[in-house]
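During the second half of the funding period, the structural biology subgroup turned its attention to how the target accommodates small molecules. The most pressing case was N-hydroxy-L-asparagine, which had performed well in the primary screen but for which no bound structure existed. We therefore specified the complex as follows and requested a full 3D prediction, including the ligand pose.
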Amino acid sequence: MNRRNFLNKSYLGLSTMLVAPETITSLGNKSISSISKNSETYAISTWSVPEANMKAGRALEGGFSAIEAVVKGVAYEESNLLNTTVGKGGAPDRDGVVSLDACVMNHTGDCGAVLAVENITHVAALAKEVMEKTPHVILAGKGARQFAIKQGYKPENLLTEKSKKAWEKWLKNGNYQPEINVENHDTIGMICCDNSGNLSGACTTSGLAYKMSGRVGDSPIIGSGLYIDNNVGGAVATGLGEEVIKTVGSFLIVELMRGGLSPQKACEEAVNRILEKQKGKPNFQVAYLATNKNGEVGAFSIQKGFSYTFYKNKLNKNIPSNSIYK
Ligand code: SD4
């Protein structure tokens, strides 16, 4: 099933059903231990990514841990040539070079990230290797690429003919403006809950199309593009990374949930933090997706058009998110 069919078959209006009301009265540190773990596995991802999300959901059902499942899931989009904002086939920077960003975070609070990596498709898996096999959290650029090759990753040309043509067309004007076009935002942020009730997440992207060389967005920045606290919940971001970084969006959402907000309310508050700084209607998109330890899910965006994919009990659904601007 292609993405658009999947989107068309989505269950409109289901978001209100899945986003439970404020059932958590307090997630403050003292009450955390009394919250029962949700041992039903589930996977959530930003945007309409049915295959990737299902891969993760099925991996969880097969007994894989949340961190293994997120990496397996997002790998699908990283090698999907039709997705021009993730992995191989991703839009290049202004100089025609595809550079990828990714990070992962697991239930123990360990994390790994790779920034501005060229020629390596599966950067979320690479971020997991940084987490597991190095004393560091972040590897960038050449060093990340060298580490990947040492780990046995094959360098590839990530620029497809289609992306090259689109870039050449863009070069004619060469005007860089952040775009709110929904189709231009497909960065995949994924959070999984495994059968031990543990949460892990991954975020992987080629970043903004035609960015400046060396530009890194929110996606590989722990706390901005992704944050997990296994006692509280997790959050992921997509959209204009600069605005997410300025408000440390994903960390903010997790802290708001720790303070007692539902995932939905926390996402809304994080979007508001961005809007507070804007004069008038912003011309960019930022969207958040979050879950807590009760298995509740929330999503919210600035502009309309954001949706997320939710896999649970063998059902994979695309759910439209609410937004500030309709
Ligand atoms: C970035 N947040 O690099 C990413 C872009 C994005 O869907 O989400 N695109 O700023």
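Two results from this model are relevant to the next phase. Residues 263-276 form the longest helix (14 residues). Residues 1-38 have pLDDT under 50 and may be disordered.
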